[in-house]
Write a structure and sequence with these properties.
Distance between the termini: 101 Å
Low-confidence stretches: 176-187, 363-407, 440-451, 472-498, 517-526
Shape: globular
Helix content: 25-40%
Mean pLDDT: 74
Number of strands: 11
Order of helices and strands: EEEEHEEEHHEEHHHHHHHEHEHH
Number of helices: 13
Structural class: alpha+beta
Length: about 525
Amino acid sequence: MEGLAGLRLGRYEVVKYLASGGMAQVLLARSSGIEGFERFVVIKRIHPERAREDHVVNMFLDEARLAASLHHTNIVQVHDIGEERGEYFFAMDYIHGEDLRRILTILCERQEVIPIEHIVTIVMSAAAALHYAHEARGPDRKPLHIVHRDVSPANIIVGYDGNVKVVDFGIAKAALRSSETQSGTLKGKIAYMSPEQCMGESIDRRSDVFALGIVLYELMTVRRLFKGSSDFLTMSAIVAGNVPKPSEHRADLPPELEAICLKALAHIPSERYQSAEAMRSALEQFAADRSLRTSTAKLAEWMAALFGRRPEPWLVDGDSIKPVVGVDFDRADTGLAQTPTPGKRMFTPPPGSLLARARRKLASPIGVPVLATPPAVAAAAPAKPARDNIWTNTPTAQLAAPIEATPAPARRRRRRVAVAAALPVIAILAVIATRVVGGGDGSAPAAVGEAPPPPPPAVAPAPPPPAPPPPAPAASDVPVVSPPADDAKPTTASREPAPAKSKPAGKRPTKKPPPTKPTSTSSTTSKKWDPTTLLP
């Protein structure tokens, strides 16, 4: 970039422009001293147009303070921090080498793979750096609880001398940070996030172990693991956890190394290595069992064979800027992990979730099937799951099958509507039952003849009171007439609640009021069923 050479930032003089990111520029600078002393460093300077954004400045200064507190042979050291004309910058070690992203790009173009011993050397060094950061303590000797959150090939540098360095703690989560990460905000490269990081849940050092497992997988296969046509599909593939075995894409992989990789990529955090040191120890034991020579000297020889002998940039005239390498080093459309594809049985993520935010960025509104997670995931989840959680508790056998899922708010709304609709029905039934029970006199006349289906057949026979006289049963076929000596008017069977109408029937000899006679409203042969006759 023109105009930067010779620019002074504090006691540093800019020599060359190296690279640029979303928040800052990376410059090669020189620090001079007495008697011809010179030291070349890398200056990371915040973009002038973003120097007025408070949250950007706070993140930038947090990265400088955090990196300056870490002193490890596999972590790039920060030496100085300063301000010049309102622009913040900090100085750190210059590493003469290449990041893993560029290494994988060259290998993919040449259709080559990394030797097993060099893979082990690189990942062991990165694991040692991460474990040191995870265990770091502040000046008060309290744990800093650092989580890198951006472990990826772009942030692991292999020097031409064979040394491996982890860089860029810009989005690391730590107690030392003065600026808090907004809840639910995605931090880190999408394709190298852990499942819990994608879901916006709380994370710890095991999230970095998962990301380092992705790096190990890609070093072994020289292929991207998680990659979809959108951020939403990429995160859905990570959450689904359908990781194929690396040996399916590289036949010479030892099964022990494959097992280490798959354990680091376990979907459930409790099933992974619980620390980066545990993963490093497993790799070290594997190398010892296989008699692999894992040394920086051998790695330096391999780097020289891959890139040739390259001089330091301050020994080369002019700006020798390396071409920018994208994340897609393998140029493939999708990653090796199965990505959910649109289908008939689709669903929309819950509003406000991280996946929903990524979903809104899609050009065409499509859904993605929710993939079931093992029951152990639900058991390991907190009692009150995060609102971004879209896991469903379905059997493991259905892990790869799309299933329909109804968001929790919709289910709760349907339950409330059902309860509200049932309350009036229950109240009406209660009133009817109260009136029916309260209106009876305790007798239970039998239902005969053409009674409706509700009364059970058992109540049809007459009860055991004294047998009725012979003329009584014939009354069901003809109108009931009083004896000749009395009134000649026909009389109908009286209803139990209306005793006044039952006076003419009282002239019958020794007959109880109508326990055996059906209730009727006329002198015809048709009978009408009275529901009160069924109540005791």
